[in-house]
Amino acid sequence: MKKRNTSKKSLTDWQRIEAMTDQEIDLSDCPEITPEMFAKAVVKRGLKPAPNKAQLTLRLDRDVLTWFKQQGRGYQPRINALLRAYMEAHKLKVIGKKTQRPSSRKRKTSAIVF
Fold first, then answer.
1. What 3-state DSSP class applies to 86?
2. Exposed/middle/buried for 68, CB within 10 Å: 0-12, 13-18, 19+?
3. Which end of the chain is more exposed for a tag (fewer CB within 10 A), N or C?
4. Distant-in-sequence, close-in-space partners of 91: CB < 8 Å, separation ≥ 6
5. CA nearest 114: which of 35, 27, 56, 51?
6. CA pair distance 112, 54, nearest whole angstrom
7. Residue 95, C-beta contacts closer than 8 angstroms, at least 6 positions apart
8. Helix and strand tally (H, E) in the chain?
């Protein structure tokens, strides 16, 4: 089990940080964002979940579940995001065959991490 830092006090000099201008911030170690980076982006956890989540028991192949868990915290929202993308893609196929429209219900957008 990992030891957690229980100190609530930040060691950051927030007054100095807040006083900095954009030009004073050193971005030399931050790479430019390329289209390839966007293509490899993943959904970041920590955003407010969409309402109407349902709890269920789902059986997955052990290797699939292990792979998702190895990706780190937030594996369940990532599985949900992949299932949603699959569902939305198939809704578009169905719309082409029928005269249905996809749900216009607005969803919270997710952040992406590079």
1. helix
2. middle
3. N
4. 100, 102
5. 35
6. 24
7. 101, 102
8. 4, 2
What is this structure's pTM? 0.40
Helices 62-70, 75-97: inter-axial angle, 10-degree rounding: 120
Give the type of residue at 74.
G
> What is the pLDDT tens value at each position of the chain, 114 positions in all?
566 666 678 888 999 999 999 889 888 888 888 888 777 777 666 766 667 888 889 999 999 999 999 998 889 989 998 998 888 888 876 665 654 455 555 555 555 544
Are 114 and 44 in contact, with CB atoms under 8 Å apart? no
Residues 6+ apart with CB under 8 A from 73: 45
Measured from the Cβ of residue 72, the count of other Cβ atoms closer than 10 Å reads: 10
φ and ψ at residue 43, rounded to 5 degrees: -70, 135
Whole-number Å distance between alpha carbons of 67 and 79:
11
The encoded tokens of residue 23 equal: 């030009």
